Structures are given as C-alpha cells and as structure tokens.
Amino acid sequence: MAYPKRLFILFAASIIVLIGSLLVLFWIGLVTLRELGAVAIHEDVINHLRAMQATLTEAETGQRGYLLTGDSQYLTPYNVALKQINGQREELKRAVNQKRVDAADVAKLNQLIGQKLDELRRTIDVRQREGLEGALPIVKAGDGMQSMETIRKHIGQMVGSQRAQLEASGRKFARSIRARAYIFLVILIVNPAVLVWAYRRIKKEAVGRYLAALDVQRQKDLLAVTLGSIGDAVMVTDAHARVTYMNAVAEGLTGWTLAEAQGRPCETVFHVINEQTRQAVENPVEGVLTHGVIVGLANHTILIRKDGSEVPIDDSGAPIRGADGIIRGVVLTFRDFSERKEAERKLLAAKLEVEAASRAKDQFLASLSHELRTPLTPVLATLSSWESGNDMPASLRSDVQMLRRNIDLEARLIDDLLDLTRIAKGKMSLNRELADVHALVRSALGVCEPEIAEKQIRISMSLDAASHHALVDSARLQQVFWNVLKNATKFTPTNGTIEIKSCNTDGKLQVMIVDNGIGMPKETVERLFLPFEQGAGDITRRFGGLGLGMTISKAIIDELDGAITAASAGAGQGSTFAVTLPAVAAPQTSAPAPADSRSAPRADRRQLRILLVEDHRDTADVIERLLRGLGHKVEVSESVAAANAMTQAQAFDLLLSDIGLPDGTGIDVIRQFRQSSQTPAIAMTGYGMEDDIAKCRAAGFNAHLTKPVSFDKLRSLISEIT
Predict the structure, then answer these.
(1) Residue ranges of the alpha helices (H) in 270-393?
(2) Residue 246's closest CA among 201, 285, 282?
(3) Positive or negative: CA dihedral 326, 330, 331, 332
(4) Where are the alpha helices (DSSP H) in 70-102?
C-alpha cells in the first residue's frame, strides 16, 4: 500500500472514532431529554386529572349550597366549574391525541363526568321548579354521591397508571444520565488514546516514507551504476517516448551523450532502418507504448549513429509499469550485432561448404557406383547366360558359379555403400507386404549354401514359431538374414555349426542365428552396429569386408518396427544374433486357379525391335549378342543424339537405355522418346539411389534396373513389360 493511502486511512480512522463518540454522546443526550419530557408529561397528566376531580368537587359543592339555601349565588362556583370542566376535557382529549394517556380511560372518564354533570343539572332544575321539598328526595337517594365516588375511583386508577409510567420514565431518565456519564468518561479516555495512537502511527509512517524515499534513491543510484556497467546498451524513456537515461554503452553506439539526448524524442536518438530495404522501421519504444508488451526489432536492423555511420544491432523494448499497472516509460536494450553477424556469415558459409561437400560426396558415390557397376554388367550377363545354358561343360560350371558369386558380392558391396548414404539421409524406403519370414530365412540360407558347403558347416534348423508372418519388405528382410548368415558363415571355422531357430513371444516373432565361431569381445558387441566396425584390425585383414552389413541391417529392422541384437560370451565363444518383428496372422489360403495356357503368352517367343542405348562398348556388345540370341532385332546407339535420330527414323518395341551418356543422359532420351511414343522403356544404369530411380520413373521409364544386370532378370523384365 502506498504511503499517502496509509496516512489517509490512519487520519480517517481517528476522525471516525471522534465523530462516533460524539454521535453516541448526542444520542444518549436525546434519550435523556426524551425520558425527561416523558416525566413532565406524566406529571402534567396527573395534575390535570386531579384538577378535574377538584373542579367536579367545586361544581358539586356549589350545587349542594344552592339546594340547601336556594340562593343563586351558590351557582357561581358551579357555573365556573362547568366552564373549567369543558376546557379540561378538551385538554384531556389533546393528551389522548398525543398518546400521553389511554383513550379508553379518557372515554370512560368523559362518560362518568357527563353523567355527573347531568345529575347536577337535573337536581338544580328540580330545586328551581319544586323547591327544597322536591330536591331533597333526589339528594337523599345518594345517586350523586355514588357517581362522584365512581369518578374519584376512576381518576385514582388513571393517576395510578400515570404514576407508574412516571416512575418508569424516571428510572429510564436516571439510567440515561448514568450512561451519559459513563460514555463521557469513556470518550474522555478513548479519544486521547486514539489521537495518541494516530499520532504515533502517522509519525511512524512518515519516518518509514522518508526511509523508503532514501532506499528508493539508493536503488536509483544502484540501478544507474548497474545500467552504466552492463555490457548492453540501455536507454530509458518516459511515457511520451522522450529519453530520460542512457548508459555509456548506449552513448557509444548512438554517438549521443546523455546530456545531448535527455528530453529528446527517442526516434531522434535511436534512428533505425531496415538493412535490406533502407526504409525506416517502427521504433520499438512506440510499439511498447502502443501495445503495452515487449517488442523486439526484426532481423537486419541498422542503427544510424549521430555522425551518420551505421551499426547492425539487435534489441528489445519492455514497458516500465507503476504499482497501478499504468505504463510510466520504456526501457530499451540493444547491442552491437556486428561480431555475431560476422559469425553467422561464417557459419552459413561453413554450412554451405559442408552441404556442397556432402553433395559432392553423394555425387562421387553415385558416380563411383556407376563406374564400378558398369564394367560388371557384361561379365555378370555373360556368366548368367552361360550358367543358365545347357551347352556349358560340366567341368566349367563350378568356376562360372564362383565367378558369378563374386560379381554378386562386388555388387552387394557397392549397394552397401549406397545404403549407408540412404541411412544417413533418412531415405531408407521400404515396400511392406505380408511375407512368410521362415521362407525368407530359407531363401537367405540358400544364397549362402555354396560358402556353407565349402566350409562343411553343419546347419541346425528348428523354425518352431507358429505365427511366422510379418508386414515387411521381403527383399530388405532377406538382405538382413543374408548379412547375418554371411557373417556367421565367415566367422565360423570349417566343420563348425550354425543353429537357426524361431519362436513367438508376446505377440512377436523372433529368429535367432547362433554360431560357434570366433565370438566377439564386449567392446566389439557394443560397437557392432556402427558403420565400418569389424572389431580388431586383424579381423579386417583376415576376413575382409567393409563393416556395413550390420549397420544397414539395423536400419532396416528399425524401419520395420523391430529389433536386432547381438550377443557373445567372448572371443572363441561364438555369437548369437536375434531379429524380432511384430507377428501378424497368416493369410487365408485358397486353391490356385488352373493356369490357362492360352492367356499367358510367351513373350520370349515374340520377336522385338529393341533400341539399346549404351556407351560402354563391352556391355553393349554382350547385351546385344544375348538379346539377338533370344531372336530379337537389336539396334545399338552410344549417344543421346544418335538415339534421338534413330527413334525418329524408325519404330521400336522396346527401349533399353543407360543413364550416363557422353552427350547427355538417358533422361534426355526418354523425354524426347515420349513425345512421339508410349513404347515400353527400361532404364539400365549404374545409378541406383532412390532419387535416381524416382527421376527415371518421372521421366517416363517403365522400369529401372541397377547394374550389374543379371541377364535372366533382364529377360524376365522384358517379358513382363512387353
């Protein structure tokens, strides 16, 4: 509470006590006067009743004297009494109207008086007509005496009632006199005490206010020292946006001294513009005063100093509110943004450099993949055709299979490098479908059978999971099992064992692959799923590989909402890998529909006119020879220009095109081709990233094959799309 308000309350309290005591004293005085008046009224009524009784007695006395003497002089008191009685009855009537006496008592008294006066008048009338002899019987009858006695008795009762009320009023009067004395005594004690208390409180408040004023001044001095020593520039304005204070930093940034700036409009001292538009921006002080909230400057704000030079700044303004909530001014803090802006510029440049390096790395990997895959294509295609043919000598079949497996391994290593890039970018895309996980395990095992047979490893298979279906990318999950089985085969000695088993736990399907190979120390297990981790250097030299298989496998399983773990008791103790996936119900099976040979044409028997766009001579020669061997007519082009000329000159049933060409890309070829033809087209390239596949699809290719291309796969795809 503010000091003036407290002082006002103290002063008001003292006045209220004083006035209240006087009002109480006044009220008690009114009560005393009222009771005193009541005493006088009751005494007046009593006197009046007694006077009426005396007047009636006078009237009766005069009547009796006239009856005995016959002298009319005795009627004078009677006549006077009659006049007085009438006046007294009027007075008694006014007393009734003033509620000083009971109306019923007065009415009865008037009735009795009337009867008495009638009796007196009748007796006088009889005396006047008949003389004493006629009046004496009336007197002797005693009616007059009886009526007078009744009147005296009734007046006595009324006097008694008035006397009782008089005594009650007297007691009340006495009590009010005593109460007035007591209250006067209390007032005499309390009022000085209240005045003394109020004086002390007012004195205390005044001293407190003085001390508070000293404290406020000390705080102002401390605030001035604090603001003067703060690292940021500080400017304070009043409610009219006029400068009242600036610290030394603000003086240095604005070029104005406090003496020069004090009292000036804030926008004169703090002149800000937008760095890009060079237009004036709203002064934050005006924004605070208008909206009553904290306001900050937008980015790219420049402060124009007094000498016209410019400083990039960052600032904010906040309202200064009094205890009543009213804005008294604004405090504005701002700082030189030059160093931070330079740091941001350098950071942005570094970010752009890193992004450029990342793009260069990705481009390098894509180009490396293309350059590594392309020479493998003619080799793999040739080996595939030999392996699937029936005219190859049996003595060479194992050698051809060995060559084909190593080409596949080389392609897998390239795919692993590209998969690592996909994982780093978060672009590992999966095509989920309902699949039999046991079948995928058996398929991955079949891929590893040549190596397993070569090392004479014993396989123990116990796939006991009742629920062994899951929503997965079949090719990717088979890749995971192949990675795990390949490692188990690689690190298990000759004549070792590999156990493959499955089970269901809590609605999940778990596949475990356990070997009795070289095992892993704890530190290797902890880092197994990191890129390029293969354990100790001698392991890498002894067994080879890039150390990417487990990293890629974990990324795939994570995308499938599953988990892959590895465990080992230590070196020489073997390893255990567990793949856990959410299990789903098996699909309902139905009998397969009988094949209709008439509705399934053999595409291989159809002779196609094929345009092969390929700049790698060996690849072009092999693919051309193999396609011609299937009975197709093949034309070969080594550039975009030649391909466009050939598609304009003649029609083709199929377009096979590489993407990287000497004078452009296969994208250019397909775009030109699609302007005049909807013939099926297959992209056949060493660029195999998701973006590359998406670009090929968007440009108009119907399918995408990543080199090295298996000729069997190429033949199957040609049959599918044609």
Answers:
(1) 284-291, 338-388
(2) 285
(3) positive
(4) 75-97
Which residue in 289, 287, 320, 321 sits closest to 301, CA to CA?
287
Nearest residue to 381 via CA among 678, 107, 159, 612: 612
Query: What 3-state class would DSSP assign to 317?
Result: strand
Count of Cβ atoms closer than 10 Å to residue 297 Cβ: 23
Q: Are 155 and 109 in contact (CB under 8 A)?
A: yes
Between CA 255 and CA 241 the distance in angstroms is 19
CB 703 within 8 A of CB 670: no
- CA 429-527-547 angle, 5° bins: 60
- Domain segments of the chain as ranges: 3-203, 231-336, 340-394+605-722, 428-582
The per-residue pLDDT for range 54-88, each reduced to its tens digit, is: 888 888 888 788 877 888 888 888 888 888 888 87
pLDDT at residue 544, rounded to an integer: 43
* Superfamily of structural domain 340-394+605-722: Response regulator (3.40.50.2300)
CA 435 to CA 433: how far, in whole Å?
6
For residue 382, CA distances in Å to 34, 63, 96, 246, 535 come to 138, 176, 146, 85, 37
Residue type, 139: V
- CA–CA distance, 603 with 627 (Å, rounded to integer): 13
Sequence-distant contacts of 28-35: CB under 8 A, at least 24 apart: 28/176, 28/179, 28/180, 28/183, 29/180, 31/172, 31/176, 31/179, 32/173, 32/176, 32/177, 32/180, 35/169, 35/170, 35/172, 35/173, 35/176
Paired residues of 314 in beta bridges:
335
How far, CA to CA in Å, does 193 sit from each of 51, 180, 221, 415? 55, 20, 41, 101
Q: What is this structure's pTM? A: 0.41
* CA–CA gap between residue 144 and residue 117 (Å, rounded): 10
Give the CATH fold of the 428-582 domain.
Answer: Heat Shock Protein 90 (3.30.565)
* Residues 596-619: b if buried by 16+ CB within 10 A, e if exposed: eeeeeeeeeeeebebbbbbbbeeb
CB half-sphere exposure, 601, CA atoms < 13 A: 10
Q: Are 279 and 273 in contact (CB under 8 A)?
A: yes
User: What's the one-letter identity of residue 196?
Assistant: V
Q: What is the pLDDT of residue 414?
A: 62
209 CB-contact burial (10 Å; exposed 0-12 / middle 13-18 / buried 19+): middle
Take residue 128 and report the two structure tokens written for it: 């006047």
Residue in the structure block whose two tokens are 């020489």? 572
Report the 10 Å Cβ neighbour count for 188.
10
Are the C-beta atoms of 253 and 305 separated by less than 8 Å? yes
At residue 44, what is the residue type? D
Which of 335-349, 354-368, 633-647 has the least mean pLDDT? 354-368
Distance set, CA 68 to CA 83, 124, 132, 610 (Å): 23, 11, 7, 179
Spatial distance between the Cα atoms of 645 and 652, rounded to a whole number of angstroms: 13
- CATH class in words for 231-336: alpha beta
Calculate helix-pair angle for 75-97, 3-69, nearest 10 degrees.
160
- Tens digits of residue pLDDT in 461-472: 999 999 999 999
Token pair, residue 8, equals 């006002």
Contact between 644 and 633 under an 8 Å Cβ cutoff? The reply is no
Identity at 601, one-letter amino acid code: P
Rounded CA-CA distance 74/63 in Å is 7
